[in-house]
Amino acid sequence: MKKFLPLMLDLAGKEVVIFGAGAVGERKATLFSDFADVTVISRDFTPALEKLFEEKKIKIFKVKDLTDNEISKHMKNAFIVIPATSDTFFNEKIDSIAEKSGKLVNRVDDMGDIIVPSVIRRGDIVIGISTLGDSPALSKYIRKKLEEVITPEFEQMARLQNEIRELLKSQVKDQKKRSEILWNIINDDDVWVAFCESYEKAFNVASEHIERKE
Predict the structure, then answer these.
(1) Can you give the C-alpha Rg of the chain in angstroms?
(2) Which of 107, 112, 119, 137 has the lowest tally of Cβ within 10 angstroms?
(3) Which fold is adopted by the domain 117-150?
């Protein structure tokens, strides 16, 4: 029985090795290339993967048949290994070698060590949704529903909270009062409405809460 704990990982400088360059390998490489050093190993590569390589967003290695030792060498420095070939048996072999080497595995056809959730991003706000692989369609449905609630204004509110918090550190000594002001700003409908006009107006409306405490 696997026990998954939701985490936010910093993958900067970490290597993700993907075996397979079909549609799934392409999707994984596209996703991870924004966060990690990605290497794709395959016999052939899709035009999209070749473009990512030309843009220096990923590395590619063209191979034929791979022995167990060659598989091990390719994943030597990997933080995450992704078996994404069309051969289930070969994926199992890659998984087994990775597990023995102490690597984290993201499976595309089975339950691995890592599950990539459906994600909502609003600036510094990141929300991951997962059904642990049981229902990708439900994850997508939940994401669409949450996107209706977590609107782009939430990104602006995150920025506003950060800037007001820094301002409060120099103007309000009492930590409890600082927390109260920040909470009142979040609950101020006038601030949310002001975002529709401009960030500057919302900031000015929010700043009134500081003046009330002085």
Answers:
(1) 23
(2) 137
(3) Double Stranded RNA Binding Domain (3.30.160)
Domain covering 1-116, topology: Rossmann fold (3.40.50)
Domain locations in the chain as residue ranges: 1-116, 117-150, 153-213
pLDDT of 46-55, one tens digit each? 999 999 999 9
Instruction: Give the span between the Cα atoms of 134 and 156, in whole angstroms.
Output: 34
Instruction: Read off the amino acid at residue 141.
Output: Y
For the CA atoms of 92, 93, 94, 97, what is the dihedral angle to 10 degrees? 120
On whether the pTM is more than 0.85, the answer is no
Alpha helices (H) along the chain: 23-32, 47-54, 68-74, 88-100, 136-149, 153-171, 175-186, 189-195, 199-213
